[in-house]
Amino acid sequence: MSQTVDRALTILPLLAEGPANLEQVAVRLGVHKSTALRLLRTLHEHGMVYRQQDQRYRLGARLFALAQQAFESLDVREIAHPHLVALNERCGHTVHLAVYEDGEVVYIDKVDSRYPVRMYSRIGKPVAITVAAVAKLLLADLPEGERRALAERLDYPAYTPRSTPNAPAFLRELAVVRERGWAADFGGHEESINCVGAPIRGADGRVVAACSLSAPNVVVSSDELLALLPVLRATAETIGAEYSGKPLSAQ
Amino acid sequence: MSQTVDRALTILPLLAEGPANLEQVAVRLGVHKSTALRLLRTLHEHGMVYRQQDQRYRLGARLFALAQQAFESLDVREIAHPHLVALNERCGHTVHLAVYEDGEVVYIDKVDSRYPVRMYSRIGKPVAITVAAVAKLLLADLPEGERRALAERLDYPAYTPRSTPNAPAFLRELAVVRERGWAADFGGHEESINCVGAPIRGADGRVVAACSLSAPNVVVSSDELLALLPVLRATAETIGAEYSGKPLSAQ
DNA sequence: GGTCATGTTGCGGTATGTGCAACGTCCGTT
DNA sequence: AACGGACGTTGCACATACCGCAACATGACC
């Protein structure tokens, strides 16, 4: 809508690929050097880009600050965290929390064996949206039209032989997931990793987030993982209840 | 420099404080609603902001992606990481890596006891720039004028009685740090936490990053921590050497 | 000292962003 | 049901602020 801002914002993912000098930016944007310079200067003033000694630009530290703050203002995460830790302590496996936003699924929390950590390392990376259990749960709840449109527009990388191959298969899987209320990924992303997930619902029943348990199949068989479903689903429901405004439910 | 972009970027930290609706954004920006709307739409198209069900805007998931990618393209971090892990395995304490950028100091890596993790949780948060050992190291190496200007413009929060109280004290401390080549923070940020740090220098001798060891003084006395200085400094030098283009030095 | 590559500056034309006012839409209220 | 208020949205005319150009620094390399 706004040409100038549009161009400026286009610079950011461009620099995310790696540092670039003025001319490279100008060429990639399809604008004159002076125009690119003005945009970069404005971005620089806001700390969004940084200029290294060799004068090339790269993304700036302010992005970390913003991402961090964006993160902390996600109230689902805040509410869910202690429950996820409890779940982890009970069964020992890796716990993930994810949300859907404008065609993307992002992990917003992770608890790993015995060591609670917000594993930002997974955040932002292209989540395996076509295979991850949490992605299935979040997409399964989208309105029919949006779900279909999104499924058509996705790529279906064959991470493993069990990866979801195409849109029709994905939509069928989503229908199943929606029907039964939980999702799984048995080696669809990494051959040896299994995963089960459950939806977290808000007051209106919409899925606001999803959580999952992951474990390598050399440690835990898929059956053993499935046996943990009741605990996982109970956790998800507790979180949903609290999120919906029953803070002192099963205290 | 560019009014439109400037306004658009101003929206981001504003939303970082919490969700806001169109009118609030317009008022804070001092522009007409329609103008704010256009800016927000452009930001939205780029995933920088997200519109929740109640139509209020908040920061979007794309920020995570950008921060993540910015992160991975920091080559100091990449080079340093294995050395930091080795250091941690050797002495067991928490290891930090930080860089300076445009008046800010940010942690870009962390290794905690027996569990290597990029502790993104600290990134973006205002680092205790006036007391942290790594901050002292990075600021001590700035050109005289910039160092002085920055010191004047900083706040000096009294985290503890040992926190750096004001600009003159800070500049004196920086002079000491620069002279002797290492820095410490004994309870200047948190009463019970001690910390020693060493500079990582590039080929031209400039400090490109700094690393540190932290430990609670109930576990390790400050003397014991100081005894680890040689190991820490050796690590820092190894990283600096490799970063300067001697990849196969002390293999 | 010359040449090349790259970043920077000043300037006029006009595309582009701006504010205004009218219109939708969704609430809650009587 | 009808009304009213609060917000978000749209179309438009004006002029601002952005754009590309071309000339000018700057610095590296030979």
TrEMBL record, chains A, B:
Keywords attached to this entry: DNA-binding, Transcription, Transcription regulation
Top-rank taxon: Bacteria
Key word Transcription present: yes
Protein name listed in UniProt: IclR family transcriptional regulator
InterPro entries: GAF-like_dom_sf, HTH_MetabolicPath_Reg, Tscrpt_reg_IclR_C, Tscrpt_reg_IclR_N, WH-like_DNA-bd_sf, WH_DNA-bd_sf
Keyword Mitochondrion: no
Gene3D superfamilies: 3.30.450.40, Winged helix-like DNA-binding domain superfamily/Winged helix DNA-binding domain
IclR-ED domain boundaries: 62-245
Annotated ranges, domain HTH iclR-type: 2-61
